[in-house]
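Can't paste images in this forum, so I'm doing it all in text. The chain is below; anyone willing to post the predicted structure tokens underneath?
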Amino acid sequence: GGDLGHTLASPATSLADLAQVVNALTCPEMGVPPLYKACPLTRLMREAIGGNCRTVLLLALAALSDDEVLVPPAVLKFAEHACEVINAPVPDVRVLQGGELQ
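Text version of the structure:
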């Protein structure tokens, strides 16, 4: 196979691009459009973030013990900010006739 290095972004870069999309959607007064095409992650999540989906955000937390959970402040800040994104789901009105969408 070919070298996929040019199409795959690092997780940190993808998450930074995702944060920029969330910022653009929650701060429209800044006049910066969401750059969904910035990386594969944001392209994949376009309908889930500000699009035509109902979205649930899950956070991964690390349990240090039965009484302690590690939650980096940046993760909580991102989650809080992402909850401000308003999606606009609309019903899909395409009609299925004879097994094909019309």
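Confidence is low (pLDDT under 50) at residues 1-6. The longest helix spans residues 11-26.
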